Amino acid sequence: MMPKIIFRHSHSYDQVYKDISRIKNYPTESEVMLYIKKIQKIWNKIGKKILKELEKITKLKFKDEKIICYIVGKAIPFADPLTIPIYTKEHNYFIDTLIHELIHILFTQEGNLIKAKNSWKYVFNRYKNETFNTKIHIPLHAVHTHIYTIFFSMERLEHDIIEIFNLHAYRRSWEIVNRDGYSNIINEFTKRIN
Predict the structure, then answer these.
(1) Taking the mean position of all CA atoms in its chain, how far away is CA 106?
(2) Which of 41, 117, 176, 185 could be joined to 142 by an S-S link, Cβ 3.0–4.6 Å?
């Protein structure tokens, strides 16, 4: 059974980000709630198919029945707790960011790290001269590239790469995926899963 992604706004959680950011035009609670409605509609159309494809391509399973995704006005996205800011004009980029974080969650859910222990060992040996952050994003970006090719477009993939171009580890992992081929990386990773 695929997990249900629940988009949630927490006033107190968001207030922490508002206080830290000190941005004058920080999105209001009503703006965030309106954004959640838009995102929910988009995710409802494609979400189950994407989650199913992630499990199929990685040979790993989501363990939770539901995954809470906290939506905040401004933040750096991360997987635990799943937190993503609103991208005012970029609904597609929100979905792409969500998929990125869901791949992190899939890789690290209970039991999956153990199942993929040999896969990660291979990645860390194969790319031993790369940073930790680059290494963990190589299989992630390979899987994400697969998702782009199945559900979206190469233009959308290129947009994602441009958005994170200033982050060295991400840029480097995309370079490696491009050089070594996303299918090859996925195959090398998944053939070592127990």
Answers:
(1) 10
(2) 185
